[in-house]
Amino acid sequence: MVTLQTMDTIFYEAQRQGRISFYVTTIGEEAINIASAAAVTSDDFVFPQYREPGVLIWRGFTPQEFASQCFGNRADYGKGRQMPIHYGSNKHKYFTVSSTIATQIPQAVGAAYSLKMDKKDACVVTYFGDGGTSEGDFHAGLNFAAVTEAPVIFICRNNGWAISTPTSDQFRSDGIAVRGQAYGVRSIRVDGNDALAMYSAVHTARKMAVNEHRPILIEAVTYRVGHHSTSDDSTKYRPADEIEWWRMARDPVTRFRKWIESNGWWSGEAETQLRSSIRSQLLLAIQMAEKVEKPPVKELFTDVYDDLPSNLREQEKLLRETISRHPQDYPADVPH
Amino acid sequence: MLGIVRQKVLGQSLQKVRPAVSLLRSYSSAAKQMTVREALNSALDEEMSADPKVFLMGEEVGEYQGAYKISKGLLEKYGPERVLDTPITEAGFTGIGVGAAYYGLKPVVEFMTFNFSMQAIDHIINSAAKSNYMSAGQLSVPLVFRGPNGAAAGVGAQHSQCYAAWYASCPGLKVLAPYNSEDSRGLLKAAIRDPDPVIFLENELLYGESFPVSDEVLDSSFCLPIGKAKIEREGKDVTITAFSKMVGYALKAAEILEKDGIDAEVINLRSIRPLDRSTINTSVRKTNRLITVEEGFPQHGVGAEICASVVEESFGYLDAPVERVAGADVPMPYAANLERMAVPQVEDIVRAAKRACYRSVPLAAAA
């Protein structure tokens, strides 16, 4: 959780400094991210929305790997194809973030159905916000999961805001948990800022999903302390003191820290040490990522299809010829 | 000038070819007959049998045996885990199909008609088509979307649109349009085996039509290459491109034109994306005249792309402007007389071919 918080602070600043073009923070939702990741296994598949990098942190994604994606450099697993924070990693079973809202929900159900067909001892976890539950995909996905008895855990981060739309303008139902029930999916509402409660709920949900082949919906109530993204200034549509109150009095990381300190497992020095070590790692990662060259020209054309088709091979050839004839019109730092 | 000389030379060599073609025709009429419906059903059956990862999902595909009976007998043979009757949500089951494909299964997703695929177009384009690229090869989508496309008979505007041009404009998708039973078998098998998302555009009115199929086509390993068009009828005077039902119309038009001394070459596109530009251009360089035929709306249609391709690559070979024969630029009307006028008929193709050959007064420029 400390890593996530620190990463958010540093990468957000990097965007403000113009070093990366865009960033999305997870401030206020660290407990949801980390506790849910800890409660499932590395065999389980994750279909994120875009505010769950903490799950990747838990699974072992390094600061360098995060930075590479944000800078879209040669080391980016995404080959520079997407905006920052669109992480994806096959080896961590974390499906690539796609900007479209709620599309991951029926996809997660499909993958869970496939896991069931393969008789695997694993489930799928998918995340979405309160806004995402208005999309048609949410309803189709939940309905389908119930009918096909798919082992999938739906985690709704009800953080009160969908960019500037508060939940009172998003729905008039009693939150999200009742919707799951309406579709025949066992649902529960949890305090999303209580790391232990999140862990406990997801842990039990996983057992039910895998052993009983059933979907579970967890509504984690929390607050989006940060802006929607670096393109947003949330003080324009909500009071600054509301944000501050949630940031200070309801910080999930502080809450967990106080608990482990009170049990004698943590201390102020350990905290300071941890924070400063993570901070240096992240700053170094950014510095290095900035220097790494961008993906080569050939990556413009690959992966459209499984094989490179002839029309794209021709286009690539034409592009290379044009670059060699007019090098002054093309950036010097794109390798060939 | 060169074109005329070449035509004479080619005409002589084609005379030698002609008898062989008619021999083939008489041979094939003795071969087995198969309806397009049977062709699709057998292709699905064989691919599901060969690969346990292939499964079928869609509305009415199971218990009802398929809205058009294409999946007849499959539920009984493979069980409800591999033939899924879905709830009524195209957006939902398309997303689910994509998720299953991400994991490694090979779904065949049926749309009752491609008009209903509009409900799911976000998943088709933004989840299926672009995922391999956006994830840099980590998420592949070996998925087939199939169902009837284009006009049927008397089904009105919301059930009659042709989506070939819409899907074919999107990189990341492959778009196929079979005409006869051989096409249906070979292309569906190729689509299911292909690792990329494929849009497979069938035609409701062709389902019941019977075509001769050779033993090679009936073999379970039979497969047609994606991206290759077929020359259904060789000719030297004018090239007519078509796909799906319009191939049948183009062939009928060619027979009528033959009586008037015009020898038309009919190309069955088979694959809209990737488009077989090489076969089309080679044909136009031979005949020097081109008519494109499609049922769909004219603006930004398949014919527009073919015309652009020929103008870019074979401009010097054209002896006449390229003409597009397409559906009327109106939502499909219901009344039978109006519907008939909204879709190309054989006479429209004949007249267009004659105009290209300077055999009739050209149309005044129309909007």
UniProtKB/TrEMBL annotation, chain A:
Domain Dehydrogenase E1 component: 1-297
InterPro entries reported in the protein's UniProt record: Alpha-ketoacid_DH_E1_comp, DH_E1, THDP-binding
Enzyme Commission (EC) number: 1.2.4.4
Sorted UniProt keywords: Metal-binding, Mitochondrion, Oxidoreductase, Potassium, Transit peptide
Annotated GO biological process: branched-chain amino acid catabolic process
GO cellular component, one term: mitochondrial matrix
SUPFAM superfamilies named in the record: Thiamin diphosphate-binding fold (THDP-binding) (SSF52518)
Reactions that this protein is recorded to catalyse: N(6)-[(R)-lipoyl]-L-lysyl-[protein] + 3-methyl-2-oxobutanoate + H(+) = N(6)-[(R)-S(8)-2-methylpropanoyldihydrolipoyl]-L-lysyl-[protein] + CO2
Cofactor requirements of the protein: thiamine diphosphate
GO molecular function, one term: metal ion binding
Keyword Mitochondrion appears in the UniProt entry: yes
Domain of life: Eukaryota
Pfam families in the record: E1_dh
Cell location: Mitochondrion matrix
Assembly and oligomerization: Heterotetramer of alpha and beta chains.
Family membership: Belongs to the BCKDHA family.
Protein name, entry field: 3-methyl-2-oxobutanoate dehydrogenase (2-methylpropanoyl-transferring)
Gene: LOC110429207
Automatic annotation (TrEMBL), chain B:
Record key words, sorted: Metal-binding, Mitochondrion, Oxidoreductase, Potassium, Pyruvate, Thiamine pyrophosphate, Transit peptide
Gene Ontology biological process terms, A to Z: pyruvate decarboxylation to acetyl-CoA
Keyword Mitochondrion set for record: yes
Sample GO molecular function, one term: pyruvate dehydrogenase (acetyl-transferring) activity
Broad class of enzyme this protein falls into: oxidoreductase
Subcellular location: Mitochondrion matrix
Transmembrane segments: none
Record domain Transketolase-like pyrimidine-binding: where: 34-209
Domain of life where this protein originates: Eukaryota
GO cellular component annotations of the record: mitochondrial matrix
Cofactor(s) in the UniProt record: thiamine diphosphate
Entry's EC annotation: 1.2.4.1
Pfam family, one: Transket_pyr
Reactions catalysed, as given in the entry: N(6)-[(R)-lipoyl]-L-lysyl-[protein] + pyruvate + H(+) = N(6)-[(R)-S(8)-acetyldihydrolipoyl]-L-lysyl-[protein] + CO2
Stretches of the chain forming a coiled coil according to its record: none
Known function: The pyruvate dehydrogenase complex catalyzes the overall conversion of pyruvate to acetyl-CoA and CO(2). It contains multiple copies of three enzymatic components: pyruvate dehydrogenase (E1), dihydrolipoamide acetyltransferase (E2) and lipoamide dehydrogenase (E3). The pyruvate dehydrogenase complex catalyzes the overall conversion of pyruvate to acetyl-CoA and CO2.
Quaternary context: Tetramer of 2 alpha and 2 beta subunits.
Protein name, as recorded: Pyruvate dehydrogenase E1 component subunit beta
